[in-house]
Design a protein that fits this description.
about 120 residues, alpha+beta, Sufe protein. Chain: A, 3 strands, globular
Length: about 120
């Protein structure tokens, strides 16, 4: 069902965990499949210096969370805001059609975290 890239990110998730002194935190849930993601960002000089997440969900939700974390480290806030689910799907070399909805959780969590960051300024 899943390709090698997706399975690698699911079995060996990158950047999982939390950042105790994160200056941006966002949490989202996908009511269609029950996945929940909490994203922690450490933003310094307008760039994502560190990123961690906690995801409760299916293999696709965990893999897309891992992929997004790798894609965003070192990116500017503006670049991070442009992340789409299809960017993540392409990075993972595809997802089964019925699991593409799971890929929305990561970009939504990024946007929620960035909104949190801006609200603190």
């Amino acid at each position: 069902m899943y390709n090698e890239t997706v399975m690698d990110h699911f079995e060996n998730p990158r950047n999982a965990g939390e950042i105790p002194d994160a200056n941006a935190v966002g949490q989202v849930g996908n009511p269609n499949c029950g996945d929940v993601m909490k994203m922690y960002l450490k933003i310094e000089d307008g760039k994502i210096a560190d990123i961690k997440y906690k995801t409760f969900g299916c293999a696709a939700a965990i893999a897309t969370s891992s992929a997004a974390s790798e894609m965003l480290i070192g990116k500017t806030i503006e670049e991070a805001e442009k992340l789409t689910r299809m960017d993540i799907v392409e990075y993972l070399n595809g997802l089964p059609e019925q699991k593409i909805a799971c890929s929305t959780i990561a970009p939504d969590a990024v946007k929620a975290a960035l909104q949190d960051f801006r609200s603190k300024k």
